[in-house]
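ATP-binding/permease protein CydD: structure, please.
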Amino acid sequence: MKLNLNLKHAVLYGFIAVISVVFYIAFGHHLSRILESIVMDTGVKLTAPLMYMSAFFVLFILTDKLYSLYTKIVANKSIELKANQLIDRIDVKTQRESESLINALLVHLESYRPYETSFVPTIIKTMVKVTLIIAALFFIDGFAASILLFTAPFIPLYYVLVGLQTQEESVKQATRFDNIGTLFLNLIRGKDTVKNTDSKETVINRLEDDNKDFVKETMHILKYAFQSTMMLEFITILGIGLVALEVALRIIIFENISFYTAFFVLLLAPEFYNALKVLGTEFHNGKLALGSFEKAQNIIDKPKMNTSYRGHTDHYSAEAENLTVGHDGKVLLNNADFTFDKTGLTAITGESGAGKTTLLRTLLGLHEPVSGQLNVLTTDIGYVSDQVYFSDTTIYEYVSAKNHSEDKVNDVLNRLNLFNSIDNLEHGIHTPIVNHDIPLSGGEIVRLKMARVLINKPAVIIMDEPTEFLDAETEQLVMKYLTELKETSAIIAVIHRRQLLSIADSHYVMDNGELKRGDAV
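Here you go.
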């Protein structure tokens, strides 16, 4: 069975486990000698054996703790690496499968943790312990070692069969969990739609069905767990009983075994079977964890979004060659060639759904085109989107990006007629924005986004509906600053309100997969 562990760590796991088990066997050897001397009155001095027994027992405890600590450190680093691999897969395409990613990161990956923290270390430790105990017993009592060797395979054979079934059921359970999470989150997002379309009963029934299936898969897994535990206990008791019977017959009837040998065998045999029993339990849990990890691995294995289509140009703000843009099999822009000037305002218009916003996201590097090449002047691009989203920050930090003073931030807010609205808030420009909840109107939010662009003045500015939600007076104010800004920067804006065309230096229309040059106004 292949373990998710590199060779270096596997060797170190095995080395520490070997030392730990050797110390335990040495401890058992001296303990057996001491008891033989006491019970059989052999006259052996106990001072040295007691010192050795105590030393080996302490060393066994220390190396066992070292093994546990080291394996946990390695496992946690591995989990952290896999979590980072999941986070690296977050891009614009993740928005469509965000529920699966969150489940993989917070649920499935955490369910997988026992595989690396417990299952893998137990596998290696058990293999070492079983091998060394069998080897030691062949030197002490070949008959007992033969009994262990004969009965031992029944335990791994059984838990392998059960574990494989458990992993299959675990994958079903994880898939069902994802379905429930996705449906529930979609229900919250679309609660108004559900209410207005009288779809409440349909949604409730769907949730109940998925929940029943999830419980059913869980009960199957528990059934396998109970069966596995019962059979492992039965095989363990039977094996220990056979060894005890062999020792009893030889010590009472045949009288061909010493007390030392009998006690040493009865000390090591339960440890041998207990290791296999623990391994059986861990195998079940390990396969359960692997089933959860499959859901995370599917996301990790997905290729990252390709950004090689983006090159550099010194002559234009953006330059496209045979650029094809689309999504979900629909072509929005087909083999387009265009150039946008290094300064001035480039306006893009078109019917709703024509692909204007998708084109802007392609310019930003947030949407991978189907084919073609796109060269941009700089990657330092200011973006004013039509989506209302702010990370957890403050108004001051959002506008300034921590690069400008409070006075400069207040000045740009005042120029956009925002200063009074924000100053009236309890904490002014230091008002926190938590969960993108900001105490401003739609028009004020647009101007706040504009303030971030005005204060930083990047070489390229991309805007999606920059005058949306603005009244006529505020729209004129924004247009004034856009007129100033376009003298030194390239502004590429998708617009619906025709008023903004009056200050545009060039105009493009998206229609039927083409980007046509409109009339400059």
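Notes: The chain has two domains: 7-300, 310-517.
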